[in-house]
Amino acid sequence: MSDALREAVRALKRFPGIGEKSATRLVYWLLRAPEGTATEIARALQALGDGVHECDTCCDLTTQNPCRVCRIPGRDEGLICVVEEPQDVLAFERSGEFEGRYHVLHGAISPLDGVGPDQLRIRPLLDRVGSSAVTEVILATNPTVEGDATALYLARLLGPLEVRVTRPAHGISVGTEIEYADAVSLARALQNRREIQ
Q1: Which of 46, 59, 136, 197 sits at 20 to 30 Å (Cα–Cα) from 25?
Q2: Phi, psi at residue 171, to the nearest 5°?
Q3: What pLDDT is stored for residue 197 in this prediction?
């Protein structure tokens, strides 16, 4: 393999979920693709680095400041949903159920991966909650060990600020048959059960 091919494979392997074989397939696909395809992809990736930055308000990724969601009038300023990653904002927005504001941490506390509270956007969150009329913070971190640890850490920090701190219910996904649900999901579904009305 030539140096240029090897370098391209090495670069593509940096994407999550892309190993040596997948990266090699992608490089050869790019070489066979219509003329200009690789240049167009490279240009789009370059634009990400040049034009995308964090929103000064919610820390979501955006090309404008403040971001699109922060600019929407009429959203509930007193309700902040804290998520781990920018793509989590998209998931909540697709649901059409949340009418408050967001705050993106850009990760979760994970000592094994070298990620501590200082690597997350926690200080801007505390500044927002402490300096505005926020009444509730929803800690919508992932239902993982790291997400739960991050939520617990944030709940302790937010406690003295006299704001309601909540966490979305976890349990069995809609459409899942109980026999195929994992033990953790079943346990959480039982813990978070509600009365039928």
Answers
A1: 46
A2: 170, -145
A3: 59
What's the rounded Cα separation, in Å, for the pair 33 and 29? 6
- Mean pLDDT per block of 10 residues along the chain (197 residues) reads 90 94 96 94 88 94 94 94 95 90 97 94 95 91 91 95 90 75 77 70
Query: Is 38 part of a structural domain of the chain?
Result: yes
**Any idea which residue has 């050869």 for tokens?**
28
Here the tokens at position 18 are 């892309």
Name beta bridge partners: 54: 61
Q: Are residues 137 and 183 in the same domain?
A: no
Q: Is the dihedral of CA 63, 129, 85, 115 positive or negative?
A: positive
What φ, ψ does residue 64 adopt, rounded to 5°?
A: -125, 155
Strands 53-54 and 76-83: unpaired
Q: Which amino acid is at 154?
A: L
Q: How far apart are CA 31 and CA 5, in angstroms?
A: 10
Whole-angstrom Cα distance, residue 100 to residue 77? 6
Evaluate whether 101 touches 137 at the Cβ level (below 8 Å): no
**Model's pTM, two decimal places?**
0.80
Q: How many domains does the chain have?
A: 3
